[in-house]
């Protein structure tokens, strides 16, 4: 019998959780940040594709919690704990937060990538989750895939190839 | 979100016409520039989730050549001119005469990047000026920025304004086709008005926003 390993895909402003041997992937991260939080022993991992730094930026009522760094990280941790992850064992890997276009104008939205990264780090620090590895900034899009068995985050960029962190 | 819920079929028709006029002028400009026949489809106006929008450009990790510009003025928004890599290198070869050009070898030569940026500049400029004439609104395009990267990465940038109010985007999408090489060309114009701009467009054309 052939065992094909299932890859769970996470869309933009979305999140999900997988258990080994499943893989979890999100594609086309630009200024967005992909946050992976995992418990190595329980072989559980969650991935959120964060688009904006703070939920206070939301201008209407129904909030998509996976879209904002502050709410997404909290919710991801809660879901992992509900699935049996241990709060103290959680670690994180993050990637993304690039600046896709270079503009002279100082509009705040133009530096959204770095702001997303800062917001994610702030929230992880607040929840005392250690960032084991990161690949942030730059000006290239990234596709990332987390392997729950090896705890490696595979990052693919156009022109710069593939690496594991 | 309110503005999406309020939109009626007449509104969608207006947006379609906006896309039609803009892209029609841009297609003419492209045709003049390259001295060949360019076909344009009737624009599609769709209300899409962000993920669906990435699919329009071939999926989030499909690599595309995109020219992005911000529209400032009375009806702010974002605009993209997106080309497949095959098409973009085809255009570059035609404009620069650099026959050996390929996106496989980085860094790209300065002239080819500049040519592509200028192509985007001319096309989006003609799109916007006709749109501005039609609506009588002052629209000022920013200097266009070029990026050769994954569709998800480039498009999400233009969704930032919208994403603060909604999980859906109204996309005015016009496809361009090159007649001489069937099923090869794929150019897309995406016009993404900021949430507050819809009412301004409708008002400028004499249609109330809530009818």
From TrEMBL, chain A:
Keywords: Chemotaxis, Hydrolase. It holds the Pfam family CheD. GO terms for molecular function: protein-glutamine glutaminase activity. It comes from the Bacteria. It catalyses: L-glutaminyl-[protein] + H2O = L-glutamyl-[protein] + NH4(+). Transmembrane segments: none annotated. Belongs to the CheD family. This is Probable chemoreceptor glutamine deamidase CheD. It comes from Peribacillus saganii. The gene is cheD.
Automatic annotation (TrEMBL), chain B:
It comes from the Bacteria. Residues 10-45, 114-148 form the CheC-like protein domain. PANTHER family: PROTEIN PHOSPHATASE CHEZ. InterPro entries: CheC, CheC-like_sf, CheZ_family_phosphatases. Keywords: Chemotaxis, Hydrolase. GO terms for biological process: chemotaxis. Pfam families: CheC. GO terms for molecular function: hydrolase activity. This is Chemotaxis protein CheC.
């Amino acid at each position: 019998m052939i065992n094909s390993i299932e890859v769970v895909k996470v869309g933009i402003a979305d999140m999900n959780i997988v258990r080994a041997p499943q893989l979890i992937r999100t594609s086309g991260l630009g200024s967005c940040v992909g946050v992976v939080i995992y418990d190595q022993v329980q072989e559980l991992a969650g991935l959120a594709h964060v688009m904006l730094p703070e939920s206070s930026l939301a201008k209407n009522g129904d909030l998509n919690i996976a879209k904002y760094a502050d709410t997404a990280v909290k919710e991801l941790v809660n879901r992992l704990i509900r699935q049996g992850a241990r709060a103290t064992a959680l670690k994180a890997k993050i990637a993304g937060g690039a600046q896709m276009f270079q503009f002279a104008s100082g509009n705040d939205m133009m530096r959204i990538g770095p702001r997303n990264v800062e917001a994610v780090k702030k929230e992880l620090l607040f929840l005392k989750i250690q960032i084991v590895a990161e690949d942030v900034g730059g000006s290239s899009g990234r596709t990332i895939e987390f392997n729950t068995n090896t705890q490696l985050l595979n990052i693919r960029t156009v022109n710069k190839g593939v690496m594991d962190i | 979100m309110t503005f999406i819920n309020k939109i009626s079929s007449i509104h969608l028709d207006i947006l379609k016409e906006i896309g039609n006029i803009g892209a029609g002028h841009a297609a003419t400009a492209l045709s003049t520039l390259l001295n060949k026949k360019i076909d344009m489809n009737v624009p599609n106006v769709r209300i899409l989730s962000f993920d669906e929008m990435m699919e329009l450009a071939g999926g989030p990790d499909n690599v595309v050549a995109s020219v992005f510009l911000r529209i400032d003025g009375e009806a702010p928004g974002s605009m993209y001119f997106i080309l497949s890599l095959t098409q973009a290198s085809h255009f570059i070869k035609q404009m620069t005469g650099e026959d050996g050009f390929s996106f496989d070898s980085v860094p790209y030569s300065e002239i080819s990047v500049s040519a592509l940026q200028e192509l985007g500049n001319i096309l989006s400029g003609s799109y916007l000026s006709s749109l501005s004439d039609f609506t009588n609104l002052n629209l000022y395009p920013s200097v266009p920025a070029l990026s050769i990267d994954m569709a998800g990465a480039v498009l999400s940038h233009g969704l930032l304004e919208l994403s603060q109010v909604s999980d859906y985007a109204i996309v005015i999408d016009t496809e361009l086709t090159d007649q001489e090489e069937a099923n090869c060309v794929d150019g897309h114009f995406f016009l993404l008005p900021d949430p507050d701009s819809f009412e301004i467009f409708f008002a400028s054309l004499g249609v109330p926003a809530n009818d």
